[in-house]
Amino acid sequence: MTAPMPTPTPTSPSASxxxxxxxxxxxxxxxxARRGLLLAVLWAGMAVMVAPxxxxxxxxxxxxxxxxxxxxxxxxxxxxxxxxEKLVGLLxxxxxxxxxxxxxxxxxxxxxxxxxxxxxxxAKLNFAGKRPVFALVMCALMVxxxxxxxxxxxxxxxxxxxxxxxxxxxxxxxxxxxxxxMRQFMTAIPDELLEAARIDGAGEWFIFWRIAMPLVKPxxxxxxxxxxxxxxxxxxxxxxxxxxxxKYTLPVALATFAIDPTKTNGSNGVLxxxxxxxxxxxxxVFILLQRYFTQGIATAGLK
Amino acid sequence: xATTTPSRRGVPDRAHAVRSGAGAGGAAGRGRRPGPxxxxxxxxxxxxxxxxxxxxxxxxxxxxxxxxxxxxMSFTDFGLRxxxxxxxxxxxxxxxxxxxxxxxxxxxxxxxxxxxxxLGVPLTVGAGLFAAVLLNRGVGRLRTFxxxxxxxxxxxxxxxxxxxxxxxxxxxxxxxxxxxxxxxxRSPDFLGSKALAMPSLIVMAVWRNLGTAMVLFLAGLQGxxxxxxxxxxxxGAGVWQEFRRITVPLLRPTMLYVSVMTTIGFLNVFEEPFxxxxxxxxxxxxxxxxxxxxxxxxxxxxxxxxxxAYVLFTVILAVTLxxxxxxxxxxx
Lengths: 303, 332
Prior knowledge:
With 303 residues, chain A is mainly α. Chain A has helices at residues 32-60, 64-67, 82-90, 93-124, 130-142, 149-158, 165-169, 176-187, 191-199, 204-215, 217-233, 236-241, 250-258, 261-264, 268-288, 290-293, 298-301.
């Protein structure tokens, strides 16, 4: 399904900074009764959004007896780590964590550099072929990944790269979205600044690294977060490009584990423990960095 | 609209005579700018080309070549033996495409995928818009809290949440069945029934993706000037009228973007049925992407799977163009 789309809101990080308007502003701040209803609806929605996560987290710590109990035991009666122990016995969790992390870090670093480079060229340099290159980037934005699945697999097999980190990294090392985003932000850099540096005899490479890049740090942060997440959650290509379980990324390991009943013995506890380990780091990072998720991509995503 | 830059300087010829080129190219299109020098090999072009090289090299290798290769493969009987020897494959003309439309399972996949999109996209976009409008109505300090909560599922791995939802929907020990038994009801076997399996996946997909729509709509809502709302209220517009006459029309561009993006994502639906139902029961949740994956990597009918990939791609293009047509903001 959709990779998390960059979803910007151009609000100040703390939405609380928006003062509630004076009463003359009518519905913008609802009357008490209406506000109560509004909050009730939002809380109900929140409950639906959070319930599966809570269910997962609680179930991961329930004993087998609690998991199968009728009536349902909502809060574990005796908290246990047995499912995590089982999981570590069945899956090499450490290795999958390492694979996922390594791939995501390298993919993110490559995207930051390569997308910024082309973004800079498209925003601030003149060269023959600029328009076609930009058109290519826009086309690449439209192409769904699974259109290339079969030949990519054949290519990677022929190169002998199945089960290699290269196979997991290279196809995602420069995304069109990143180019588009970086171009948007680089466009806003004042030309006079670059010009002054050029007159002082700075080379283009120096200007890019020392002047342009520091000026687009917020965009880089945003791109880094989204690229990392996309890589972390990526599934179909790693599924196809790895045969050796030792090279599985977390989602592939979890999925192959989940659809193989012989492994889980029908224990949902082990699966919840697995899901918990995959979801928790991402959720924590998201909650810590949520303001970066909600910054400035609006200019790129929304015309 | 992409902001156009003021006139931009080209690379100076060694510090004198600075040409001024203008415009940021692309969509802005504010008049034609004098293009780069005509002599292609001039030193002026070098930096631009150097900066483009890494992306273009990767793009060619991992996108352009495979796209063309998929197209060629779709007219061949490419199979398992060809993975080792790609050029030993036979051309079979349009046979793959012809067979697709006699293939019961593929037609079912196509139907299911449309079912997923036709129900899932409006629900996702609607729920996202609803949440955004509510959050835009001065909930003060809690706004960030709700926004984080509604967006949280988007950042999590689909595989992980699919595993979780499989258990949430479990008829014996699941969350829903637990809630149902609290009020004396019995939970149906959601994923095991032909009628309920697809709707269950749709509910999960809406749950996971409405945050994306919400955050984009919030951005759009904040772009609506307060004066416009003010004027509407002075003219005596009620809440509903304001929504109909101000919010919806002014959100059109956002609506277009959100709908197109969500639709493309939903047409490619793969992980949910793969993890939750494996396409079952009885192909009730078989989708085009899943069918393609199985044809290509379970049965190694790669030529056939390539034809499927192109049919799906064509569908995506057609639906996207249709949406651009229908939702295009005519006032611009």
